[in-house]
Write a structure and sequence with these properties.
homodimer; alpha+beta; Pnp Oxidase, Chain A; 4 helices; 7 strands; 24% helix
């Protein structure tokens, strides 16, 4: 059973976490949890929010050469009648402050991220120059175990 | 900060959900939530447990031609000091009942799955011929936000 379009829209707006898959130069997959916000029909994920190693993150290096990405939103529950997932296949690009393509949108994206994640009141959104992955949605697929799972997904909120 | 080896071992034994990335023939990534159990040093994920489409699942088709997989265990929490992830890169193969390579192990794997997931008391573990993905671990990487996250990960249990 698929998720209704309306539920999908709500999850893309409200669900707090996703798993992002990028591809390395060697073609191997790389998967990492991300936070994200939607703006202008794209998903935007900040790169600089939490303590990380100094060199450019693998996900950023990867999309510079291989833009194909897959993003999974899903909910695990010990009650398996509550399971659902939503997979977004798309193309990602790294967008930095100052890029011609980012003009105007980065402030709105930052606002969307701050509105979605109150955590950014105490966690720095960007260290230094803002850098984000912008994901253009090409295709979506979803699955849910049944009507109860769809109802839970339609609430679109993860409590913990 | 990485997770201690002991915590990693516990997560591989107890954490109930992971996200599995496989690669399609076209090289594009495919990501899906999975349940799994560890047996004989491998991760084993049953393919047939929940209602699915009739033709062979993408993850199975994929590993038949591209065995490279990535598996992510992670915890999202509104408290970002509690975040952690564990990524397992490996090689997967589809193992069916009756395969010479599966002799003896499939019953033990089924026991491990039933012990880990009480849900299999009411959900059928396999429909028809047992089919599993066996993932040989090649490399692991982990990250946690700090000592509190490590402590939570060491409990290795997801309540909901």
């Amino acid at each position: 059973m698929q998720l209704d379009r309306e539920i999908v829209e709500r999850l893309l707006e409200r669900w707090p976490v996703a798993r992002l898959v990028t591809l390395g130069r060697d073609g191997r997959p790389h998967v990492v949890p991300i936070v994200f916000a939607r703006h202008g029909g794209h998903l935007w994920s900040p790169v600089d929010a939490k303590p990380k190693a100094a060199r450019e993150l693998a996900r950023v290096r990867n999309v510079r050469t291989r833009p194909e990405v897959s993003v999974l939103l899903d909910h695990y529950d010990a009650d398996w009648t509550m399971l659902w997932w939503l997979r977004v296949d798309g193309r990602a690009s790294a967008v930095e402050a100052g890029d011609p393509t980012s003009q105007g949108s980065l402030e709105l994206v930052a606002s969307a991220l701050r509105a979605k994640y109150p955590q950014y009141a105490s966690v720095q959104l960007f260290r230094g120059k803002p850098l984000l992955l912008r994901i253009a949605i090409e295709q979506m697929r979803s699955w849910c175990a049944g009507p109860e799972a769809a109802r839970a997904a339609s609430e679109g909120v993860l409590e913990r």
